[in-house]
């Protein structure tokens, strides 16, 4: 634009005897405005009138001119509206908890449960088995790894850091965001803290330290960015693991048929793996509950087999393996083998692959169900399985390469082979479900493009299915399998190092699988240990900031568990050249996607805040808004929680008329899992009463279901608006009554005296609302005023003529129908922006916005009820 100081829009003809903004209907030169490029740094709009012509149908040319920034005195918080629905309860019966615990076997613990197939086989490729110390030392290392990380860390600590039953890195981030204002999107309101699920029960012994941490996090933007990147990194690693785990699990299962079925070669194995992967991802649409009940019996039988075979081997071969409970064997193991012992940690960490799924999948189940299943089924069965294998190795040390099936009694070989094949296929379910949960959470918190989400359970809100992610994972898994097939020429570089070559059949595989295993073994390990480190860091912050744990205990958590995880990370990073770079590539891709979306969304929101229309502009227009007000309700969707969005000016300039009632609807996600229905809406009035304009902030948690039919949503919105109008009249009557009686005990009157006058918002000076805003009382902002405590003169507010007029006007507008006013926004970097910003905003972020789920797709609204105006934001 040539003139940087003026933003000029098209002419709109108005009906009236003069050109001063009377009611107008249309005629003359009227055109639709696509939307012009708006400088995001321009202050709020103002109005300049230019009369053109002296005819009865006057023409008013609107020019939006820069004005000094003013405080929007109408941005006063109102109250939330009570609905008809109660809170969602998380209490579960004993039988329901046990049923969920049974389902967790088929969803959460498949990956960890199949680790006995290959852990010792991989460990003893790095360490020669020369004495009892080697076997008992490796066994002790595996046992204490399982006891410390999955059991001590996750079951007893991390699972308790859930966010109202939701787990994962974003759940930890939402906890931190609720207590400290560290979110990159500045749309938090004081009224959000009144949501029942928002409040945190804070102890006080370490309060001063927690407040210092909170102050530092809120003050330093670099710490906010670092915290966000840490969360995004952990989430991207989980998603990357969701790509690799199914491919690895299915291939390891199918490869067991080689050598047992005549003519079953590499090509057949690849084709069968692809078919199984397609089937595995195809059944995800039936939901976690059905999949869990279908898979759980197989995994339950698998764990029973592990425990039974382990007991059999211990009693038959060597009962002295119980000496491995002495942790001194770990020290002797490292003392004897030194560097080789450190190298074998990369194989030892495979015994806890899938441990992070215990926390990430928490939203699909419950804390108690996951704790019960691991403590009483998974943990003892795994210990017995590893102890049984160690007992067999102490008798037959040459069987390390095929330890699992060699230790199986001959009469059980084929049944165990079938169960192991099925269990290995199911093992990937944990990371698939965790990926769905992580994407849903990141999407709700503004860190992932909008996608279609299907809730597959009426009872468990966390059980979801995301079609796009599901098919993306399937395609990537098939590509991984295909790439392995096409890169067999690299097999010679690894020779016979694979400890997995004789894993399932006891016979040598082709050079295909000799290549595959040394390539894929580090993949899951790097992603798994990386997520564990992120979780350790975030839980430590939760301990210090929210739980306010004793400083010594809070520091012991990262010192103990973080040290162990860093040790394992150092070992698995040494395998980068052996294929460990692949999960980092996937994680980096998703990290870029999530950070780009968050970065662009924050810039767009900041632009809208700077562009919001000033109250001077609205007051100069008058109650007619300079156009015709026709019956109907216009729902203008925007992202602002305060102020009037600039897109409203585009609608005024573009449309020949505007609705008699306008509601600015803001769909806002707050950092809580669920917002109760009765606390969903936050209403307030915009402009004086005769404007009939309101703001509605519809608040959702990151687990909430947004599947409302538009008729039901409209009905609920109007009912809530009526309640708001009645309560507003009631509060105003109460204020007037108290002022007349001059009660000395009302301290809020003096507080209201500081509100700016002269802007037409005297009707919003509601002392009890201001008291709610500043008071730390326990009462929710949505609590209704007890009508029994009101004076008799205030009980008949329905007789208020102005209230009756507003209610009748609202009903008339509702009868005329609803229109959805949406902005088709485009975000562009300013010309003087640096190159990387232009690259990310103009290309990457623009590509994500064009291909994500549009706002209209989230609403089941007929297209004839939607009006869209294009607007470009320069950021």
UniProtKB/TrEMBL annotation:
Main localization of the protein described in the UniProt heading: membrane
Membrane topology: Multi-pass membrane protein
Residue intervals passing through the bilayer: 98-121, 141-159, 226-244, 264-283, 295-315, 340-360, 372-392, 412-436, 464-484, 519-544, 579-597
Chain ranges of the K+ potassium transporter integral membrane domain: 100-514, 526-619
Organism superkingdom: Eukaryota
Keywords: Ion transport, Membrane, Potassium, Potassium transport, Transmembrane, Transmembrane helix, Transport
Pfam families, per database record: K_trans, K_trans_C
Regions of compositional bias (Gly residues) in chain numbering: 18-27
Start and end residues of each stretch annotated as Disordered: 1-52
Subcellular location per the Swiss-Prot or TrEMBL entry: Cell membrane; Membrane
Residue span, K+ potassium transporter C-terminal domain: 631-873
InterPro entries named among the record's database cross-references: K+_transporter, K_trans_C, K_trans_N
Gene Ontology CC annotations of this record: plasma membrane
Job description of the protein: Potassium transporter.
Descriptive protein name: Potassium transporter
